[in-house]
Amino acid sequence: MAAILNIIDTLCEQVQGQKTNKPAPAFFRQHIFHAILDYCSRGEPCENRIDMMHRFDQFEKCVASIKRRESRQIQHWLDAIHGRELNLATDLARIGMSSLYYPALALHDYFKGNHETALHHLDISLNHFSNLFDQGFGEAIFGMVEQNLNKVRVLVAAKRNKAAIDETLDLLDFLYADRGGAKYKHEKLAAHCEADKHDSLVAHYLDELLIKFITSEDGNLVGTLLTQLYERCDSWAPGNVKNALSLLQRCRFASDGGGNIALSEYPLSFRSLPFSLQYVLALTLISRSECELNATQKSILINFLSLSSTYKRVAKTRWYGDTVEPKQTSTREPKLGSSPPPDSIGRVIPERISASLGMAC
Q: For position 321, what pLDDT does the model report?
């Protein structure tokens, strides 16, 4: 137990310094769609390029309406898209526009609950992105990752848990392992973005994947995923994320009577982890030693969890058994080290999720 408390002391020190930690430069994922439009329109005459830009604008407006659930506007944009076929001169332009069209259709199907149709449209889109990659457009690899991430979202929503976990493990292997694996034989993402932005991009994908499992209606799903991740991460390149997963695995082993934990075995920068992994790690450590944390340690970690962007995303979900966001009595952030609200621990540490992580006291 003393070793775990030493880990928490170290983690608390890093949390207290979190606000001064500058995030890695962001990689703007949206640029991939503009890059596809630019790349695929180069062989087209001027009037066709204008048509492609106009159609791309319609795609964007349709997607925005889908996300806002604006039924009449969605139909308006779909009618506009389907009402006039583009007369393009090259196969490359046609492939490029199709790669942008099918993700929008898939999103519409996803929100309507038509999961199998959404998966079909995502597979078509993936074929187009793969075609673009094979023709020399290396940045298409970002589109492929995005659509596989979307497949995971659909599979979780459809409660196809095994398929969702398999897709997630394959994708994380590609992002973090030295090898691409059987499904992802392409070169690494780092070859197509600036080195200082690569970490933020990979962290974004891990966050989106892990948060989808955290917010699933199945309270055991995130624990099942993490159990399989512990085994898969052995093949990953050394780094902060691998160390965090190894520490989580060790904590779980210790909770089953596996002995003490040596912090020196897990060199870890908490502040540099993706937000979702910060959340799971802090939650796990609190759950493992909740009864023996001192008041300062407890309040620091509880405040961190309550204020984190991950908490704000999961607070509205059934993961907490409560669809109402916790009331905010003040817009001012509580001071680190202050006493947490009486009911905050129950909100931040849902019992069934702690059990799913294998860390309940």
A: 30
| Phi, psi values for residue 313, rounded to 5° | -75, -35
Tokens of 235: 């093949």
pLDDT digits (tens, 9 = 90+) for 47-86: 999 999 999 999 999 999 999 999 999 999 999 999 888 9
Domain that includes residue 153, residue range: 28-158
Of 107, 135, 158, which residue is a domain's last?
A: 158
Residue 297 CB: number of other CB atoms within 10 A?
19
Cα 23 to Cα 235: distance, rounded to the nearest angstrom: 27
pLDDT in tens, 195-216: 777 788 888 899 889 988 988 8
Strand, coil or helix: what is 181? coil
225 vs 234 pLDDT, higher one:
225
Full-model pTM: 0.79
The DSSP-derived string for 116-164 is HHHHHHHHHHHHHHHHHHHTT-TTHHHHHHHHHHHHHHHHHHTT-HHHH
| Nearest alpha carbon to residue 196 among 60, 360, 25, 49 | 25
Indicate whether 14 and 62 sit together in one domain.
Answer: no
Of 104, 134, 158, the last residue of a domain is 158
User: Is residue 72 assigned to a domain?
Assistant: yes
Same domain, 116 and 206: no
Quick one: 214 and 146 in the same domain? Answer: no
Over residues 250-261, the mean pLDDT reads: 59
Phi–psi pair at 338, nearest 5 degrees: -80, 165
C-alpha span between 167 and 165 (Å, rounded): 5
